[in-house]
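Quick start: read one record
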Amino acid sequence: MLEPRIFIEKPVDENELLAAATDAERITAAGFGSQRRRREYLMWRHIVRRELGAQTEIEYLPSGRPVVNHPDTYIGVSHDRDYVAVIISQHPCAIDIEPLSRDFTRAVGRCTTEEERSLSDDVRSEAALWCAKETLYKYISAKEHNRTVDFASDICIKTVDFGRGIIVGSICGGEDTEMRMLEYEGHLIVFVG
């Protein structure tokens, strides 16, 4: 398997997704109040099973992270109003997707330091900082750290390089983690794995 594999897709028809879902997933999906949320939930499972096989079992760790019953296979999931993003890797992984049109001012103001906000003057920098923090937070779960994490003080973004498509950050003072970023249809995607 080439490393990692990234899938960015719009949810398809809900009836098609329900037909491919397990009975338990249909019950869970029925509990969501919005059609959009049902489609997101069913769509990422559809992508995982399409890529790993129809018999792939998907469960959750206590942290809430989804896992599959394939040895040495990790998944990460993100979604927004338009797209579902899935990463499949042989290593712990994580992904985040956000529309570049979103106003990140409040989130970035609460969750980043002044030093992080000064890393780039690119108009996409707030989206990059938020996506990177989200990705590292999910990555902590992928690596099974069991502690409460504060976005502002425990997740540190050190560099944002739009030219190379690389963001470097660290978790709880640990080693640097290199993440990749890409743009797709007006969205920013940040991933590690």
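Residues 179 and 192 are 5 Å apart (CA to CA).
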